[in-house]
Design brief:
Blueprint: E1 3-9, E2 15-21, E3 31-36, E4 41-48
Antiparallel strand pairs: 1-2, 1-4, 3-4
The protein binds zinc ion (ZN).
Length: 50
């Protein structure tokens, strides 16, 4: 079963991406560098649950 979470932009707090979470690997906080259309640059995106 897949759990989904949001990747929230560090700069503007906008939820830009949705990604599946791997289960059974423990609770690992994800931080990814993604492009934010509002900030118009790559920012750190943090895992955010619904
Ligand atoms: Zn942003």
């Amino acid at each position: 079963m897949r759990e989904w979470f949001w990747l929230e932009c560090e700069g503007c707090k906008r939820r830009n991406y949705r990604a599946p979470r791997r289960t059974g690997m423990g609770a690992v906080k994800l931080e990814m560098s993604k492009f934010c259309s509002r900030c118009r640059r790559h920012t750190a995106h943090h895992e955010k649950k619904k």
